[in-house]
Design brief:
With about 140 residues, this protein is an alpha/beta fold. The protein has five helices and five strands; from the N terminus they run βαβααβαβαβ. It is about 35% helix and about 15% strand.
């Protein structure tokens, strides 16, 4: 029997991968979430990025409306991957990006204000849970 099957039920699972809930509009949380997802993808593990509440602002404009945004330039100057590099890596490596419909409504954010160059789906918590396969880690930042 394949290692991808758990005992008792035959449900296919992934023993790795990560789903990251980005719910804050602070640079550090969003940056770390992108870094975590990019790292998972770099070692061929699936990654889901779920932008909700303040985290949705990460996809508004370039630069995004994140608290402490000045840290991005400081990080890049120190050789740390910047926001845009990490976001593009996640997209290019196949991360699934989901923007929370409830978060959009709650903060009265128009979908049209989000970046058109970043592929994402607008969905909810049920979709997040469906995309977080058994064995994947669910992280909230």
């Amino acid at each position: 029997m394949s290692d991808l099957w758990r005992r008792g039920g035959g449900i296919p699972v992934s023993d790795d991968g990560v789903s990251v809930i980005l719910r804050s509009d602070d640079y550090e949380s969003v940056h770390y979430g992108l870094a975590l997802a990019a790292a998972a993808l770099a070692v061929n593990k699936p990654a889901v990025l779920f932008f909700t509440m303040g985290g949705i602002r990460a996809l508004q404009g370039s630069p995004p409306a994140l608290q402490d945004w000045d840290r991005d330039a400081a990080n890049r100057a120190r050789g740390v991957g910047g926001f845009e590099t990490l976001l593009q890596a996640c997209v290019e490596l196949g991360a699934r990006l989901i923007v929370c419909e409830m978060g959009l409504r709650s903060l009265d954010i128009d979908r049209a204000s989000l970046r058109a160059d970043i592929p994402f789906a607008v969905a909810g918590l049920v979709t997040l849970l469906e995309e977080t396969k058994p064995g994947m880690h669910l992280v909230s930042l």
